[in-house]
Design brief:
heterotrimer, A alpha/beta, B mainly alpha, C alpha+beta, A: alpha/beta, Glutaredoxin, C: alpha+beta, six-stranded antiparallel β-sheet, four-stranded antiparallel β-sheet, 10 strands, 63% helix, globular, cytochrome c-type biogenesis (chain A)
Chain lengths: 175, 157, 663
Amino acid sequence: MNRRLLLLLPLLIFLVLGVFLYRGLSLDPFHRDSALLAREFPNFDMVTLEDPERRVDPSLFQGEVTLVNVWGEWCPACKQEMPQLLDLADRGVRLVGVNYRDTRDKGLGFLEEFGNPFEVNIFDPDGTLGFDLGVYGAPETFLVDRDGVIRYHHTGYIDPSDVRDHILPEVEKWQ
Amino acid sequence: MAVIRHTTLVLVLTLIAGLSWAGGIEVREFDDPVLEQRYKSLTASLRCPLCENQAIDDSDAPISGDMREQVYVMLQDGRADIEILDHMTTRFGDYVLYNPRLEGRTLLLWGLPGTLVVLGGVLVVVIVRRRRNASAQALSAEERARLDELINRERTP
Amino acid sequence: MLIKMIPEIGHFALVIALLLAIVQGTMPLVGAATRRPLWMAFARPMAAGQFLFVAIAYACLTASYMLDDFSVANVANNSNSMLPWYYKFSAVWGNHEGSVLLWSLMLAGWGFAASRFSKDLPEDMVSRVLGVMGLVCVGFLLFILATSNPFERLLPNMPSDGADLNPLLQDFGLIIHPPMLYMGYVGFSVVFAFAIAALLGGRLDAAWTRWARPWTNLAWAFLTVGIALGSWWAYYELGWGGWWFWDPVENASLLPWLTGTALMHSLAVTEKRGSFKSWTVLLAITTFSLSLLGTFLVRSGVLTSVHAFANDPSRGFFILMLLTVTVGVSLLIFALRAPRVSHTVGFNWVSRDALLLINNILLVIITVTVLLGTVYPLLLDALGFGKISVGPPYFNALFVPLTVLMCVFMGLGPGARWKSMSARDLGRRVALSGVAALVLGAVLPLIFAEQWNLWVAIGLITALWIVLPMFRDLFDKTRNASSFGAGLKKLSLAYWGMQLGHLGVAVTIVGVAVVSHYNVERSVRMGPGDSVQVAGYEFTMTNLQARRGPNFLADTATIEVSRLGSERSFEMRPEKRLYIARGMPMTQVALRPGFFRDLYVAMGEELDGDDWAMRIQYKPFVRWLWLGALLMGAGGILAIADRRYRRRKTAEAPAPAAQEAHA
C-alpha cells in the first residue's frame, strides 16, 4: 500500500506543477505592481515645463486627487493615449504630467500637437523624478490621493477600456 | 483584451529599448579596485526592469544606464551594498533583485535544496541498509564469494 | 504551377503524416495488447511513411524560403530576399512554426531509426515502442496543424519583400545549435517509448534497458553538444562574453540533461545488476517530460526570457494540454504498472551501486533546484505573493556546491566494484590521487595567476579528483595483461566512453572555475591611435571606418594587439552593425581564440569625437568549457560503439547474473 502511494507521488507532483503552469498562462509576466503603492509621492523640487521659473514640489498634490502621467515626445504610445487623457481631463480629473527625458522644445511641441490635458507639467529631462518613481519606460501613470499618497499605477499605454474599467473607478474611490 | 494590451506594451517597450544587446559598455573610473569589484557584482545582480531577462550591466535600456549611474554614484558616496539594493527595491520592487532575499515567501526557494540533501542522505542510508540485509539473506557466504569472484573477473578483464 | 503550390503540398503532406501517425499510434499498441501480429505489423511501415511525409512538408517549407515566396506568412516574417542562401535555409527553424516542424521531423526521424534498428527485438516490444512514439507524433502534428501552421498564406496582399531574419540569428552558431539541441530533446522520446513499452508489456526486466542504452547515450550526446553550442553562440554573439545566464530557456535545456545524465547511470545499474528498475523507468519518463516542459516554457510566454519565441497563449494552452496528457498518462501508467514489490538485489556501503545511487539522488536534487529556481517566480505570482526574480546569484550559490559534492563521489565511481568491496581496497585505489589532487589543485592557481582564489582551487581539486583516479584505474586494469598496450586494447569501448565522458566533466569544470574568477574585463574609451593594456596585452586602435555589408551598415574598428614585450602582433576587428530591414543595432564581437585564453573585444556606443566605448576582455581557459562538453558527447557516442550493442543476437533478455559474467 505504502509503495503504491509512493509510485503515485510523481504524478501528484506533476499535476500540482501543471496547475501552476496553467495559472501562469493567464498571468502577464510583464505586469508588476509599482513598489510605491500606498507610499508617499517621492520628494522633488523641480521646475515646470511651461515656466522655467516656476518650482514645484509634492505640495502640488495636497488636497486633490491627481493622475500623474509620465510621458515624453519620443514615446509613440504616449501620443496614442493622449485622446484618453484628454477625455479624463474633460471628465474633471486633475492631471499632472511628468515630461520625462525630453527637451523643453520637444515637450512643448508635443503638447501643442496632441493637446494638453495637464494642469501643469513637471520638467524632468534627466529622468531623476522618473527614477524615484520607479519608471522604466514611458508612458506610466500614477494615481495620487489627496494626501499625496500613490494609490494606483498603470504601466504602458492606456486604452479606452482602461479608463472605464480601472482609472475612473480608482479616481472615484479615492475622491 | 489583456493580451492585446500586453502586445502593445511589448511593442512600445521594444521601440524604446531598441532591443539592445551588448549594452552597458561604459567608461567608468574607479580609484579603488575593491569598489570596481563591488560595482561589477552589484550591476550583475540587479535586473533591468524593462528588459526581458537581463542584468543591468548587460543591457542598453536607458533605465539600466540610470541604474548603473546610481550604483556608481552611491558607491562613490561610500554607501553600503545593502543601502544601494534597498534604494533600488524601494523604487522598482524586489523584482530587480536577481538574488532574492530570504523571507517568508522565499523560504521554500532557499530551504528546499538543503532539505533535499538531508533527505537524500537519509534515503541513501535507508536504501543501502535494506540492500545489505537483502544480500545477506539472499545468498549464503559461499554463493556470495562465488558471485564476487564473477563480478571481479569482469572488473579486471 | 507545381512550384506555386509548394506550400499547399507541404500542408497536405502534414495532414497525411498526421493520419499515418494516428494509425502508428493505435494499431500496433492494440495489436500488441491483443496479440494480433497483423496489427502489430503496421508499426514499421507507418513509422517510415510518417517520416517520409513530414520530411516532404519540411522540404516544402525550405523550398518556400529558398524561393523567397513571401506569400507564405512564415517566410515573409522571417526572411528577406537579401539574406544569404544559407541563412534562408536555417531561417526555417529560426521561428516558432518552423522549429516545431523541425522538431516533428526529428521525432519522426528517431521513430524511423528505432524501427530500422530494432530487428532483434521481440515484435510486441517494437510495436509498443513505435506506437508510443506515434502517439507523441500525433500530438505534435496536431499542434502544428491547429495552432502553428507554417504554410499559412498572405494572399492576396503579399508583401514585396520579407521582414528579415532577426540579425541575432544570422550566424553559424544558430545554424547548428537548435538542430543539435532538438535532436537531444527529441531523442529522449526513444528511451521514453521503451520505458512505456516495458511498463505496458509488463516486461520490467533488465532487457529493455540494454536496448534503450544506446539510444539514450546518443540523445544525451546530442543534447550535451547542443547545450554547449548554445552557450558558445551566446558567448560570441551577444557581445558581453557571458556563456551561461541561468535564463529560463537555458535552464529548460539543462533540466533534461541532468535527468538524462542520471538516467544513463541508472540504466547501467539496471542492466548490469537488475536493480533500480522502477527508478530507471521513472527517470526515462521524467527526462522526456522535462524536454516537453522546456518546449512549453520557451513557447508559452509564462516566463520572461531573452530567448523565448513570440508568445501566444493559445499555443501555450495547447502545449500544456499535450504535456499534461503525455506526462500525466505516462506517470499514471507508471503508478499502476511499476512493480509493487521492490527487487532485493543487494549491495554494500562501499560499492559502485551505492555510489551510483548517490549520483542519482544528487542529480535529482540539482534538477529540482534548477527547476524550482526557474518556476519559483511563476509560483509566487500565481499565489499572489508578488513578483520576484531568481537569477544567477541564486543558481550559482546552490548549483556549484551541489556539483562539487557530486564530483566527490564521481571520483570514486569508476574505481569502485559492483555490489561490494572493502573500504580499505577502495581507499588504497584513490588515496594517492586524492592527495595529489588536493596539493596540485591548491598550488596550481598560485603558479598561473597572481592571486590565489579559493573557488579556482576547489574547481581544480575537483577536476583532478575526477581525472587522477582514472589513470590509477587504467593501471589497475592493465596490470594483469602481458603489456600495457595489450591491456589497453582489451578494455571495452564502453569503458573508454565512460572515462572520456568523465574527463569531459573535469575539463568543463576547469574552464568554468578559471574563467569565472580570472576573467579580466575593462571598459575603455578608444579612438584611432589610442592604446590600452589589458592582462598583459596591448590593444591599439589603428583604424576606424564605415562599411556596407549585404544587409547591414557597419562601423569597423581595427585594433592591433600584441603581447607585452613581444614583437608579433595581430589584428582584431570589432564591429557595430545596423541591420537595415529591422533597423536593429548589433555588436559584432572580435575574438582571438586560444587554448588557454580568449581575447574578446566588443564595441559599445560612439562617444564624442571619433572615440568609442570598447569592452576588452581576457578570458582564460574559456574554451575548456565547450571542449569538455565535446568530450562528454564523444564519450557518450563511443560507448554506443561497444561490441555489446552490436552483438544483437544475445539481446534476448538474459538474466542479470548471466549478463554480468560476460559484460
